[in-house]
Amino acid sequence: MNEYFLLLVDNGVVVKKFSVGKKGRYLIGRSDDVDLVISSKDVSRHHAALEYDGKRFIIEDLNSTNGTFVNGVRIKKEFLNLHDEVTIGDYLLLLDDGTAKLPYPEATELGRKGEETVLLENKFISLRRKIKDSELKEEFKKIESVVKKSRKRLSVLAHEDRLTGLYNRQYFDKMSKKEFTEAKRNGRSLSVLFIDIDHFKKINDTYGHSVGDDALKVVAQLIKSSCRKSDLVARYGGEEIVVILPNTVSADAFKVGRDINRIIAEQTGKILGIKITVSIGTATFPADGGGLKKILECADKALYQAKRAGRNRVVKYEERSQVHREL
């Protein structure tokens, strides 16, 4: 008999694992009487139901306020396949048979602390179900909310680069695969920007590492503010920053790179008293390759070309190494 689980994912980390391998109907919501409790104001009391007949799964929205989404599409009733993404409120649910490559909280020190708060949150839910006194029940709900917020902060810290506030390399590696899979499945373009601070070693040697750190922070925030919320911006290593631009064709990615290049050159002098420039390489799926690794390699080659051509410019990857310069 196959084992199946419903994984509750928060910020890319599995926070709950619920067995759904037996035939039956499983209720999902924020009420105390459901099978999988999601304590969030965006989730209805009886939000959705998952039904398993021994062969297939069906997810059904129970007239919830904010809706149930499968792979980004709002549904009423839908068959659910392995690793389909179900969005309920701010949470992601995945149907899994044990093969999903997602981190569990115990993977890091922050994760272990996060897991403790998850366990504590579950205990609060269990206790709240047993309490009859309404005032005491409300107090437990308040404490439970504090624990949940603490767990979310720990989850964010686990995949955030502490210096820049951007996502870290580990989180980028995981989420870039997810974004690429989505792009390939939906037949959409996906672009990558590799961004490197020009003469960063010279900045450190001339002004000191403290100024170098400040420069990296400012550049990181200028890049982030130039991107959409749906874009993935991460510190790739050292002074190099990488951006994933979902649903973005090559020409538009080049424009984004050009805007970032201009803004950094204009604003860093005003903010830091030192003019800083960046070199940027861009590449796009599927125009430049059919795999994520290939696209990253192409963007890196374009960045190298930008450096060789004199820095402070944007280069779009082309097999013939044709350079596009921001004048």
Automatic annotation (TrEMBL):
Gene3D superfamilies: 2.60.200.20, 3.30.70.270
InterPro entries according to UniProt: Diguanylate_Cyclase, FHA_dom, GGDEF_dom, Nucleotide_cyclase, Rev_trsase/Diguanyl_cyclase, SMAD_FHA_dom_sf
Occurrences of domain GGDEF (ranges): 188-319
Protein name, as recorded: GGDEF domain-containing protein
SUPFAM superfamilies attached to this UniProt entry: Nucleotide cyclase, SMAD/FHA domain
Pfam name, any one: FHA
Domain FHA span(s) in chain numbering: 26-75
GO MF, any single term: diguanylate cyclase activity
Organism whose genome encodes this protein: candidate division WOR-3 bacterium
Organism superkingdom: Bacteria
